[in-house]
Amino acid sequence: MIGYVECECLIYNAQSLKEKRAVLQRIMTRLQQKYNISVAEIDYQDVWQRTKLGIVAITSERTATEKELYRALEMIDSFPEIERTVTTFDWF
Question: Which of 12, 63, 69, 15 lies closest to 37 in space, CA to CA?
C-alpha cells in the first residue's frame, strides 16, 4: 500500500530563504532518519515563510502505512518553528 501526504506549513521566524531551508533541512533529515518514508519540498520553494511537503510511505498493509505517516506528521507538529496547516492524504 502506498500512502501519500501533502501538507502545507508556515515557518513564522524565517526571514530569508536560507533560514527557511535550514529549518526544512533539519526537519526532513530527522524524518528520513527516524521513519521509513521519503519526504521532499514540492511547492513554494521561493517563498520565505511557506512550504508544501510531500511525504510517501510504502508498506504491505494500509494500517502500517497510516501509522508511519501519522508518526511523521506528529514529528512535524513537534517542531515549534513550523506549523502544519492544510494536510491531504492519497492512497494508491
Answer: 69
